[in-house]
From TrEMBL, chains A, B, C, D, E, F:
<keyword id="KW-0464">Manganese</keyword>
<dbReference type="GO" id="GO:0006547">
    <property type="term" value="P:L-histidine metabolic process"/>
</dbReference>
<keyword id="KW-0369">Histidine metabolism</keyword>
<dbReference type="InterPro" id="IPR006035">
    <property type="entry name" value="Ureohydrolase"/>
</dbReference>
<dbReference type="GO" id="GO:0033389">
    <property type="term" value="P:putrescine biosynthetic process from arginine, via agmatine"/>
</dbReference>
<dbReference type="GO" id="GO:0046872">
    <property type="term" value="F:metal ion binding"/>
</dbReference>
<feature type="binding site">
    <location>
        <position position="137"/>
    </location>
    <ligand>
        <name>Mn(2+)</name>
    </ligand>
</feature>
<dbReference type="GO" id="GO:0008783">
    <property type="term" value="F:agmatinase activity"/>
</dbReference>
<keyword id="KW-0479">Metal-binding</keyword>
<feature type="binding site">
    <location>
        <position position="254"/>
    </location>
    <ligand>
        <name>Mn(2+)</name>
    </ligand>
</feature>
<feature type="binding site">
    <location>
        <position position="166"/>
    </location>
    <ligand>
        <name>Mn(2+)</name>
    </ligand>
</feature>
<feature type="binding site">
    <location>
        <position position="164"/>
    </location>
    <ligand>
        <name>Mn(2+)</name>
    </ligand>
</feature>
<keyword id="KW-0378">Hydrolase</keyword>
<feature type="binding site">
    <location>
        <position position="256"/>
    </location>
    <ligand>
        <name>Mn(2+)</name>
    </ligand>
</feature>
<dbReference type="Pfam" id="PF00491">
    <property type="entry name" value="Arginase"/>
</dbReference>
<feature type="binding site">
    <location>
        <position position="162"/>
    </location>
    <ligand>
        <name>Mn(2+)</name>
    </ligand>
</feature>
<comment type="similarity">
    <text>Belongs to the arginase family.</text>
</comment>
Length: 330, 330, 330, 330, 330, 330
């Protein structure tokens, strides 16, 4: 390449490698693309990222399907170094697998692909933490099922950050973004009492869903409780209880858990919700727990975002979770 | 009601009846809601409006499903009187049937409901012009099929205003917003040569689709041709040719036929498209033709609109079409 | 209606009754429209909602007049069930009276109508809590006067959440949105010492107004104080003091009390203001107090809002207040 | 000033005098502020600009009151030199008188001030062309009346560019932005047949207003006619006819005459309206006519504008009109 | 790759290869990235694309530096097939060289790199048409100089589409976006009479610049002239005249030539400018001319764009130019 | 002026003097423009404001250069009276010097002018607190150098509120907005250990910068620490430590220290940042300290702001700082 006559150019796809200190790494320079030829490397990954560009299963119209691509663009503005913790994520091997293929008009095909993708991840990268970037919340049912397909002997718990129960009935809606937790309970993938929801509040859930939650023993902490006790303690308590009951914990973050004033890109976020620094703290604590084994981030619609604020917050949620993950003693 | 003690109030749903001349009528005061009890009135309607809030069948994420509701809000700012033509639409009996019920996760149910709705319209309001407010372009296939179900002996032609052919293959996409015309041709609902597309241009269609169009004899006029000849003449020519071949003409307006600079609410509108006054003129001419028997307006996404500009333009398209309709000698 | 041939349609005005559990109720399904024929029902209402679409009395240009309609649209996304409190509002009888009729160019006619409307409410629905959705803050003077017209022997106190005193001089402005509290004091409708303002702060009030406030004995807590002590205690203290002095407490919420970062739809909100969860808590506590007898929400401009965030917050303020109201021992 | 130690500063109010050729003049450097001390200069002005920040008389909520200030900011980006015509406006003496003082809650005071302002202009700057920057259309009635107060023996005609007749009844609305032309006719300030309206179209006027227009002999050209014949010829014809009948012509430009796609800052602009280059041409022709003696620009709401597009268009309307004015043989 | 276990995934960078007919090609699938190892291929390119992310040389703050990246994202929504002309661009070999490296605080380094990049292009891809995506207009001076460095014996003419002369003085501004044409004339790179500017109009140029233009014999057509004669004829005339005088023609498109109502992303676009279909036609004609040998597109600021409208228009300008280029008889 | 015939007008530049109590003062009525003729007054100023409209030295494209003008417009909505503290700023003599003249293409000229401006301020208004309104953060290096030029014997410390270290290397970037603190350290204007940064957090700084910071002994508190301890205590601690070491403290506020959800106009603000009320409290405390001798506010881009929220917050930062300043015992 010595003879290449364009010393004055930055060439694609290297647009972003300029103007920075040599030892600075941006997130997109750290996250690799999967090496499809080299099977040996597959088992060495510490984490794998999977995009799920599906939101036509959303009750109200959503462009959350565009979030995986928006995420990849937004993480270019983050370094791999967490200053609060003096910790660099870049020693983790992390790979971006790309996006689950979606069918335009047959949602069941989409859902099956998602389940298959998680199965493949658990099969081929068994050491790696799956990080799934949705998409709407319907994907969580399929991801946990896919996880369970591989780990059928393990009891799986769920730690959910959400304004909603997501316990609506599939008889009416099919497998939509309002139903995933109910689907998992009804299919006996997960037990009701192994689901911990943090962030519920206000006038955004039907009473019938609260009754269903109580019947199946689902655990939850409202924002009012959470604010009084402090998010750290609440998350710790949920993890402690789950720890006694389950083998693996799946973390699902519905970005609408955030307050409406801080998350324009989470279109059904509501007044009275969580603040950003609370959510970042919460997922870091979750990431630290040995039994936490997968996570997803859903219901983030980049079309409705303002100045990438919510997409960047979503990326930070992922990085804070990975910070916790790296803080575990391996 | 004499004794009602609130002479100082405007009561819902009468919010809009204030501050206007007595003989002024706004569109929402003219369009009635269907009288479900009184079957005799059903056959007296001159036109029926049907909302189709479906856009999860759209290739890219779309909120066109919110357009029927946006339409109903926007038409409150229009009078029934067309000043250019000195003609008042309010002598037409027109009814709003409401919206086709959609399933959240099973698009085939949605499509079947749409087809059934058009069948019911053609059965119960046989004198009425159906005006369908989409939704995305996938609905057109079902609407024409529903029409054909009732009028199975009639040859149906299509006058399409569109930047795209909408001839993509359902094998790949299923019945999406890129496929309706192909579906109609392949199902032999409509013959290729009976489809007239006005507004195609630029770099927005695959060559293969043009080749398919030529093979099936589909007729089209690019924007470049249209601009040179004049929209009036082009539409007249298309109607004249269709008149010789078919029994009924179905008009479908994809709002993305408009130039990208004038239609923010038509998210796949493109540079080089039609201007608003051209489209208004075109549909008025179409409305005048005796064989024109149904029309739809699709691919208008109110979430992406700016200051209701495109939604209002869509409403005007409907009213200009009805102007032409009223100008027929009944 | 058995024979109605459109089983596949949702008909207006029932657009919103779909896709939900049978026992779920949305706010718009709970709030009734007034039954003008049936006088017996009038006295059975627990609460009445009155819209006041007036904002041409605002010092700076405002579209707060569009807020009542925006409120009604926004409350469709709220359920009647408050999860934090495990309490369902739907056992309250609540009616929407509609909007006060406004004159386009004679503001004194508007104001008189508002006063008459409150008088009619207090006369015909004497058991009901009036909830008034403004409009700008000028309406509060007329609402309290209308209240006093009926309850002329009662001493009325005011609990105000506001960034401003609203004590400006009507000699200069007439009865504008900067003057209502002064109007009430000068007309001896309310005593200065019976007004409690929470939320004042920063550089948004003239010193002369503070001096006037001190002269008339008006009580206030700045945001700085409020933040130190905690909103709960401050509101409780204000209510306790008022309880000793007055017969009835009127609550007025100027949405500009919120911080500029959380209330885009409150155009004169300012840096350093209240956060949403604080305001929700404050009004719930106020709603619980036996002497609180009316409330209004003002200065919310939907035209300036971003993604309905502030309108939804306003609706939540109303629902949190009603939560407190229902928590009283009747 | 030699000793002033800040050679490196641009001082207010001279912020804009930098980075330009010495012989370039921006509009704000050309338009002077009135010299209140020096009465001799008053009669030497060729044109005077008057701001009228009134829009609380608008039927729908409007911030057109902010337009005079927005205008003054926007004209800083225009030079005084018209390249199309190779003509420099800067040889005209032009003065900015400032804004009419408005009352916050008494619209009749506002209107009286406007009338007085025009009377003062006609009295003290009798050689100057008044250019009035609104504000909503209600101001036109007062401006023409003020003009007539001074020129009571002269017959005044009106050349109006507007989507609406503005002939609504003051009995219902008072003197609002929908009524000015009717007010002028009913007060016999102007005869119906001396009003020429260009730009009416579509579904934006009640039939009753058209009937009223016909009864009083008002002249108008719809956009459809205008587009067929060409704006130049239509304007010329209107001026020719007015020339035979009246002594003075008042030009009023309601910015909502523009198409909805080109005028985001004219909130009631509509589909099917005029394009910008047509309006610019129209007002230049009007400016050239010897009898044209005043003009106003109304109903421009900077709060709804996008990137100053409509405000800049409004400024260009003023400058194109002045171009025509300067092209007269004095 | 058979064994790769993710048949259900679309992998980066292949996100965009889904859901399309096999013979459909999107622009990003056609434009290759340069093969730095394989020098033989370098001379086979028909066209090369160069990004120039420089806009800190802009008089007013600009983010035009982000345009090359925005272009690359936007062209993914274009096919290679031009339907109006039944012509497929994909038979052209075209390569994306990437972006010129810019210095953050030393603009002269940026400019030198730009000049060097054009020199390298003309040296190593002598058969290829350079297409340069700016950046602000200051880059044109360096690009033409770089071109001239290699072709020093050739007389170069310029065909400019612009609202401005760009003839301001570098003594005051340095080499900014207002000065490039003057720089080229003063450095004798280009003769004044060999510059043809189409699109000048209104109040956006100082008289002194017009005088300078006349002194150096610069040719121009205002928008008023252009609209009367028709853009086709004007462009043809300019090319004919240039053809007689020069060896090579450089085409520069300043996007602010477009009307303010159609180009939100061209921040100094103005009222009275060119419409999109006119510009597309103009550049296609230019592309057809044998002597046209390079082109650039400048002053497009994606940060100010609305829904990618202007960026997409810019991409279409490039594709329309290449359409003309391919229509030449090679 | 008695005879001036326009009693009904507000004249420019007096637009804002209306509709207010006589003893109310808005900030723009308090801040004077410098009296260039009257040198005696120069030394009587308590504070001077300097605008620095430079942002072409910003790494990513920025319009922070427009902030000084935006500031001046925004402060018209603030009174001089701080209600929280019952303190009126208007007894301070404060003058607006205007803006530093900037060169369009030579950033070193801009920087030199900035340094000279601070030198002149310290020379001619030695009693005055300099308040500098940027502009991007590159200006801080020049301002502190200019300060040091005059006070060369004094040890200067820096109190920085920032999400970033701003310690990047000028070898790569030149003197950009990422480098000022490093420039000051390397030029020995300031010692590393005399820099206190509050607000650092998350993934927004390269590890190498943290290492550099540690090497030079720079002091910092992350947001996580700050939130735990409380902003008041952290600021107090930083001031206490600085007090022991230095003679003068320069305060620099990079608005990106604010959380991304509260500062749309600070384009590189990030998730997890400071809240507005915390920053206001912090700068007030800083203003109270006797050794604090200058402050700047940087990286505020009004083009990206939403409804002036961040610009108004910036103005409040200035006023809160001045509140502290006035609270000192003089």
């Amino acid at each position: 390449m010595k003879s290449y006559p364009y010393p004055m150019l930055n060439r694609p796809p290297f647009y972003y490698h300029t103007n920075r200190e040599l030892d600075e790494r941006k997130v997109h320079e750290w996250i690799e693309q999967v090496d499809v030829e080299n099977k040996e490397k597959w088992s060495a990954y510490d984490a794998v990222i999977l995009g799920v560009p599906l939101s036509r299963s959303s009750i109200s119209a959503s462009s959350a399907s565009e979030n995986p691509e928006a995420f990849r663009r937004a993480w270019k503005s983050f370094t791999t170094y967490n200053l609060d913790e003096d910790l660099d994520l870049s020693t983790l091997n992390i790979v971006d697998l790309g996006d689950v293929r979606e069918h335009v008009t047959d949602i069941s095909v989409c859902h099956e692909n998602i389940r298959e993708a998680m199965k493949a991840i658990r099969t081929h990268h068994s050491q790696a933490m799956p990080i799934v970037v949705g998409g709407d919340h319907s994907i969580t049912a399929m991801l946990v099922k896919g996880y369970k397909d591989v780990h059928h002997n393990e009891r799986i718990g769920i730690l959910q950050f959400d304004t909603h129960f997501d316990l609506r009935d599939t008889k009416e809606l099919g497998p939509a973004n309002g139903t995933p937790i109910r689907q998992l309970i009804e299919s006996q993938t997960v037990q009701g009492k192994d689901v911990y929801n943090i962030g519920l509040h206000g006038f955004f859930n039907a009473r019938s869903l609260k009754q269903y939650a109580d019947e199946v023993g689902l655990q939850y902490f409202t924002m009012k409780q959470t604010r009084k006790v402090g998010i750290e303690k609440i998350v710790q308590q949920a993890l402690n209880e789950l720890n006694k009951k389950v083998d693996k914990i799946y973390v699902t973050v519905d970005m609408d858990v955030l307050d409406i004033s801080v998350a324009p890109g989470a279109p059904v976020s509501t007044p009275g919700g969580m603040y950003i620094h609370e959510l970042l703290e919460a997922v870091q604590i979750a990431g630290q727990h040995q039994k936490v084994s997968a996570m997803d981030i859903v219901c983030l619609d980049p079309q409705k975002d303002v100045a990438q604020a919510t997409v960047k917050t979503g990326v930070h949620v992922m990085l804070s979770f990975l910070t916790g993950y790296k803080q575990r003693e391996f």
